[in-house]
């Protein structure tokens, strides 16, 4: 992370950055990422299967199934009122509460 930030990018691609971390460390990383985003005006392309982390990080989301976008929009809109059956199944499996 430090190596990427030192170059002062405008965009970082983060592919499953919290997948191998316990919840405490995940929370610390999300807090750090949000702080860096605010201080350095960073944009993230955040790829994750963890909907709780996505809800904490994302402004807009795209839901992909078999490489195709099945739903996209404002994060809270998609997570609170999913239109596609696949998105509904993901949210149900993640046990997200609104």
TrEMBL record:
<protein>
    <recommendedName>
        <fullName>Oligopeptide/dipeptide ABC transporter C-terminal domain-containing protein</fullName>
    </recommendedName>
</protein>
<dbReference type="GO" id="GO:0005524">
    <property type="term" value="F:ATP binding"/>
</dbReference>
<keyword id="KW-0547">Nucleotide-binding</keyword>
<comment type="similarity">
    <text>Belongs to the ABC transporter superfamily.</text>
</comment>
<keyword id="KW-0813">Transport</keyword>
<keyword id="KW-0067">ATP-binding</keyword>
<dbReference type="InterPro" id="IPR027417">
    <property type="entry name" value="P-loop_NTPase"/>
</dbReference>
<dbReference type="InterPro" id="IPR050319">
    <property type="entry name" value="ABC_transp_ATP-bind"/>
</dbReference>
């Amino acid at each position: 992370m430090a190596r990427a930030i030192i170059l002062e990018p405008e965009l970082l691609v983060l592919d499953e950055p919290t997948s191998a971390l316990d919840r405490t460390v995940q929370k610390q990383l999300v807090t750090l990422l949000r702080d860096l985003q605010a201080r350095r005006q960073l944009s993230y392309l955040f790829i994750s299967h963890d909907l709780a982390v996505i809800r904490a990080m994302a402004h807009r989301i795209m839901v992909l199934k078999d490489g195709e976008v099945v739903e996209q929009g404002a994060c809270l809109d998609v997570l609170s009122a999913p239109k596609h059956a696949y998105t509904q199944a993901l949210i149900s499996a993640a046990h997200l509460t609104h």
